[in-house]
Design brief:
alpha/beta; globular; Glutaredoxin; 4 helices
């Protein structure tokens, strides 16, 4: 086979790989975020997720406590917004790569949570301020928690 034919075939294979990869990225699950209309860091987290390739639907609600209760978020793990993605609850400023890991591993948990609003977590960056260390926790419907990751 001559070099030009090999280049065409290789280029075609590369093109096919790109075309095949695109639907997978487009097929990422929708993240529905329940938040207060006035919460700036919630808006920043939504923008962060969109920047990481997640389709996001932001819903402004007046009673976040009802949303958290409905989806079984333990009081000790609560933050300023609650999201739903592909059967899981994501509470607070959870990094996108850990949402990806959750969706890939599919552990038997209700979801992930970053309690409070730690400085340096996605949507909580403060210029000139060192990021806090924080844990990303799993929780189940029985109230049990575990450490999923530490940042």
């Amino acid at each position: 086979m001559d070099i030009s034919r090999r280049a065409v075939l290789a280029g075609g294979a590369a093109f096919a790989a790109v075309v095949i990869a695109r639907p997978a990225a487009a097929a990422r699950p929708l993240v529905t975020v329940y938040k207060s209309a006035t919460c700036g860091c919630c808006k920043l987290w939504v923008t962060y997720l969109e920047g990481k390739g997640f389709p996001v639907k932001a819903e402004d609600v007046t009673d976040l406590d009802a949303v958290k209760k409905k989806h079984g978020v333990p009081e000790a793990l609560q933050s300023c917004h609650t999201a739903l993605v592909d059967g899981y609850v994501v509470e607070g400023h959870v990094p996108a790569d850990l949402i990806d890991r959750l969706l890939a591993e599919r552990p038997q948990v209700a979801g992930l949570a970053v309690p409070g609003m730690p400085i340096g977590s996605p949507g909580m960056e403060v210029p000139g301020r060192k990021a806090d260390r924080y844990q990303i926790l799993t929780f189940d419907r029985g109230g049990r928690t575990g450490v999923f990751a530490t940042r």
